[in-house]
Amino acid sequence: MTAGTRGDGVMERDARPSGGARGEEARAGTVSLRFARWSLPFIAVGAAAVVGAGVLAAATASRPTEFTVWANAYLVLVVGVVQIVLGLAAGVLAVRPAGAAVVASAFVLFNAGSALVITGTGLDGVVGWNVALVDVGGAALIPAMGLFLYLVRGARSGAWLHLYRIVVAVILVSMPIGLILARI
């Protein structure tokens, strides 16, 4: 198994078994995943969010509250799974070079927006301006989703691109629903 970075910033991983397999056998065992190096922070923070949710669940298991249960779900599903999926898929689907400012903006908007949503929800009943935090955080996710779409501009149409766009659409549709629920 070999891994490396090409000169254009694309990570490659070749999962061919070592041991001298030749011809059809070697090609049948090959799994190649190529993705842009800039997608690694999305994957790393997403994985950290899933682990963090596990720690939070363990720490609050004896006395879970409505907030900790919700925060675990948000950390795992949005900050974790969605971020990993969008970051990795954008890195795989991207056919044009991504500017550092675009990638950094998508990363900051997505993670800062999510942090504000979690913080605002956690402050419910503690401060009167918690809903404003949730609103600002939710609003930050809109341009983040736009940037995720921008990162895959020009990608070849196919099932993976359509699935990617569906994930973005689900976030864009569920975000205002969450903002309305924050007011209830």
UniProtKB/TrEMBL annotation:
<feature type="transmembrane region" description="Helical">
    <location>
        <begin position="73"/>
        <end position="95"/>
    </location>
</feature>
<feature type="transmembrane region" description="Helical">
    <location>
        <begin position="129"/>
        <end position="151"/>
    </location>
</feature>
<keyword id="KW-1133">Transmembrane helix</keyword>
<feature type="compositionally biased region" description="Basic and acidic residues">
    <location>
        <begin position="9"/>
        <end position="24"/>
    </location>
</feature>
<keyword id="KW-0812">Transmembrane</keyword>
<feature type="transmembrane region" description="Helical">
    <location>
        <begin position="102"/>
        <end position="123"/>
    </location>
</feature>
<feature type="region of interest" description="Disordered">
    <location>
        <begin position="1"/>
        <end position="24"/>
    </location>
</feature>
<protein>
    <submittedName>
        <fullName>Uncharacterized protein</fullName>
    </submittedName>
</protein>
<keyword id="KW-0472">Membrane</keyword>
<feature type="transmembrane region" description="Helical">
    <location>
        <begin position="163"/>
        <end position="182"/>
    </location>
</feature>
<feature type="transmembrane region" description="Helical">
    <location>
        <begin position="40"/>
        <end position="61"/>
    </location>
</feature>
